[in-house]
Structures are given as structure tokens and as C-alpha cells.
Amino acid sequence: MTAYSILDLVRIRENGNAKISLDNARDLAAHAENWGYTRFWMAEHHNMPGIASAATSVAICHVAAGTSRIRVGAGGIMLPNHSPLVIAEQFGTLDALYPGRIDLGLGRAPGTDQLTLRALRRHPGSADSFPQDVLELQALLGPIEPGQRIRAIPGADSNVPLYILGSSTYGAALAGQFGLPYAFASHFAPDYLYTALETYRSRFTPSEQQKTPYATVGVNIIVADTDHEAQRLATTQQMSITHLLRGDRGLSKPPIDDIDTYWSIEEKRQAQRMLACSIIGSPDTVREGIKTLLAQTKANELMIVSDVYDHERRLRSYQQIAEIMTALNETTHAAAGQPA
């Protein structure tokens, strides 16, 4: 069985605002737990007018309060921006409020530009201590040791599960060495997907948290009634990537009929490379695309981005994705002679 989950970018739309985006995230998560999604993650981005999840732990609390079963977490917290103690306290508090439902994915990149990094009061070289910071955070969330003078309260002995996020072999090797689950950001940086998965699995060492490798693959999926309509809906994300390439971190835009009128040839080339791990189309098209991706990656879990401008259409896309995943999992169980 392949788990399926949601990464919500909490995009702020034109004619919208941060509250609408955060409320839509909460509404999506409430639907998602009834559609069989395993977890709902949000990511830390700073100084981006089009994304509302900068205060990630606060956004997680808002979503968790509106749900009852689905796991909620960070995909991820950019650990170089913070002291491990502060993150341990934040996620320890979340775990105290919503026990057994909180995930903590950790990234090494700053999630912003160098000027904003300085505004966060972090040193540009703080990413160099990422492995040590992960171990420190893990210890702060783990059992209290005799004579331990600094504790995360809440947080100590909560054992909030950690995940390593990455888009290269660096994070894959670290996740394998530490025996932690690994999530690859192929939804926007797919170049090293297969190399990273091989690195992770070959270097995995069992740990207290994770006995066997567990790989999550990020993927863009948009489902609509027809391939043409799904491709049109996908122009919202394509425009967002084009803005990023132009250094413009603007608001999410409604879909357009012809994306080739919007981007240059070079922007199209770069955007298509970044979005290469995308499955867009009718239910039949998406079903075959997911089957191919799973056969190629052997992923334990898909972390799905369905970046659709209109909230109701986005809900429908995620609902159809869940129906496809449920059917595929039932087929897999039947083929293995197991009950669905």
C-alpha cells in the first residue's frame, strides 16, 4: 500500500489574503482526512507575498484545530533559521495539544534570500551545522537524560517524529545515516530524484524511530474531467514558477488559456524542467502516470501538490486523486492476496 499525503503551499491568491488561504488550508485538511490522506504538511517560506505559511508552527496549529485524525506537520521547517531548542518547544507544544498527530520535516535550505536570512538573525553559514542541529533537536524531543540541564518544555520525551527533506544526495545520505524517513522535493527540483533515493536506501541504518527505509516522493498532480481542462488549471502553477524565475514573488494567478503567451522560450524550458515530476490530466491519464511513478521510484508515500487556483476545483482535484490512490491500493492488495 502506498500512503498519499498533501503538501499545501498555502498560496495567497489575487483578490485574496492570508486569512482566506489559511482557512482554505484548514478546510482542505478537514476534507482530506475523510478521503484517506495520511498527513497534511505546510512549508516555511519567508518574505514571499504569495505564501501564507511563514509562521509554520502557527499555521500547523490552525489546521490541526480544524481536524481530528489526519497527521499535520511541517514539510518543512528550515532548521538553519532557528535554534533547535525553539523548534523543540514549538513542536512539543503542538504535540501536547494534538498528541500523536504532529510531524516535523526538516530542511537545510534557508527557504528565502540572503537578505531575509540576515533579518531572521541567522548566520549565512548556519546550514553547515545542520547535521549537529538535527541530532540536538532529536535529543531535545527524546527522553530526558540524567543530569540534563536544558529541556524543551513542552517537548522533552514527546518523540515527535522527524523527517529529513532534500533535493539532492546530501539530505538523502544524512537521512540514511541517521535512520530517519526521507522526503525528496521532486515537485520542484526533480533532477536528482532517482540518485537520491538510491543513496538513501543504500546508506540506511536502522534507528529507534525507523527500522527500515521510508521514502516519500513529492509530485504535482492535477485531475480534471479532461486532459485539456487539467492542463489549463496547471497554468496557475506554471505562472508561479515563471514569476520565481523572474525574481517576482507575486500572488497566485487564475489559469489562462495559452501559457505560451505568458512565458519566454527559456522560461518555458526552465519551468518545465522544474515541474518535470508532474502528472496532469483526466482520471485515466493520472492513474497511469501514478502507476508509472510508483513503479519507477518504489515510493512508500506520495506527497502531493495540487496547485489549483480555485478552492472548490482544488478540493475536487484532491478528491479525485484520493479515489485513484484508493483504487490502486485495492488493486495492489488484491494482487498480493491480501484484504483491502
Topology order in helix (H) and strand (E) letters: EHEHEHEHHEHEHEHHHEHEH
Shape: globular
Global Rg: 19 Å
Report the sheet-strand fraction.
5-15%
State the domain count: 2
CATH architecture of the largest domain: Alpha-Beta Barrel
Structural class: alpha/beta
Distinct helical segment count: 12
Question: Main β-sheet: number of strands, strand sense, barrel status?
Answer: 8 strands, parallel, barrel
Uncertain spans, ≥5 residues at pLDDT below 50? none
Instruction: Count every beta strand, where a strand is a DSSP E run of 2 or more residues.
Output: 9
CATH level 1 name of the largest domain? Alpha Beta
What is this entry, summarized?
With about 350 residues, this protein is an alpha/beta fold.
Descriptors for this entry?
eight-stranded parallel β-barrel, TIM Barrel, single chain, 340 residues, 15% strand, alpha/beta
